[in-house]
Amino acid sequence: MRLTGAVVEPDYDGVRLGDEMTKEFVEDMIERFKNGKKIHKKYVYQIIIKAKEIFYNEPTMPEVAIEQGKRMTVCGDTHGIVTRSYVLWGCGLTAR
C-alpha cells in the first residue's frame, strides 16, 4: 500500500487523520474500537509508518531519571489486546 494513492471514502464516519495525530482522532479511534468499529486502512498504515519512524530513532535502552518519592510504571506486551491497555492505564473502560 502506498499512502499517496490511498483514498478515504467520503462515507467514512470517523475523524479524519491528517499529517499529524490529534487528540480528537485518538479519542474517536478509541470510541470506534470500543464499539467494534475499525479505522480506515490508510490511517492504520499512517500510524504504523510513524511508529516505525519513532521506534527506529529511539535508543533501545533509554535511561530515565525518576524523582525521589515518585514511581514509574512500565507496561509490557499486552498481546495485541487494546482493552488491556485501557484497564492498565485507568481509562475508565473495561475489558470484554
Report the principal-axis shape: globular
Give the DSSP E fraction (strand runs of 2 or more residues).
Answer: under 5%
Average residue-wise pLDDT:
83
Series of secondary-structure elements, N-terminal to C-terminal: HHH
Work out the helix count. 3
**Biggest sheet statistics:** none
* Total number of beta strands: 0
Rounded radius of gyration (Å): 16 Å
Helical coverage, percent range: 25-40%
Structural class: mainly alpha
Low-confidence stretches: none
Taking the alpha carbons of the first and last residues, their distance comes to: 32 Å
Give your account of this protein's structure:
- The structure is a single chain.
- It contains three helices and no strands.
- The protein has 96 residues and is mostly helical.
- The chain has a domain at 3-67.
- It is globular, with a radius of gyration of 16 Å.
- The chain starts with 22 loop residues before the first helix and ends in an 8-residue tail after the last helix.
- The mean pLDDT is 83.
Précis, in short:
The chain is an all-alpha fold and 96 residues long.
SSE layout and pairings?
Layout: H1 23-34, H2 41-57, H3 82-88
Question: What are its keywords?
Answer:
96 residues; mainly alpha; 3 helices; 38% helix
